[in-house]
Amino acid sequence: MSIKRQAAQWTKYIVGAVIMLIVTLALTDYLSGGEDVAGIGLPLLFVFILAAKAYGNYLGIGS
Predict the structure, then answer these.
(1) Is 37 exposed, middle or buried (0-12, 13-18, 19+ CB in 10 A)?
(2) Which of 5, 24, 59, 61 has the fewest Cβ atoms nearer than 10 Å?
(3) DSSP character at residue 2
(4) Whether 59 contacts 12, CB under 8 Å
């Protein structure tokens, strides 16, 4: 695989992960009413990690 192609895949992965993180944080804030997010934030963080891993596998990178 060429370096350009690999860099493009990593860029897609990073952009996707950032978008998912923003959505996760926004959803956490919305569901918690802007208050303490410890209770609901951890499960959503776990979901975010799984989604990022699945997205990486979809692009063919990561483990």
Answers:
(1) middle
(2) 5
(3) -
(4) yes
- Dump pLDDT digits (tens) for 5-43: 888 888 888 888 888 887 777 777 776 665 555 566 667
Return the H-helix or E-strand segment holding 8: helix 3-32
Q: Residues 6 or more apart from 52 whose CB is under 8 A from it?
A: 16, 17, 20
User: Could you tell me if 21 and 51 are in contact, meaning their C-beta atoms sit under 8 angstroms apart?
Assistant: no
Q: How far apart are CA 6 and CA 36, in angstroms?
A: 40
The domain ranges of the chain are 11-59
Q: Which residue has the tokens 């063919």?
A: 60
- d(CA 57, CA 31) in angstroms, rounded, equals 29
Residues in the chain: 63
Q: Is 43 helix (H, G, I), strand (E, B) or coil?
A: helix
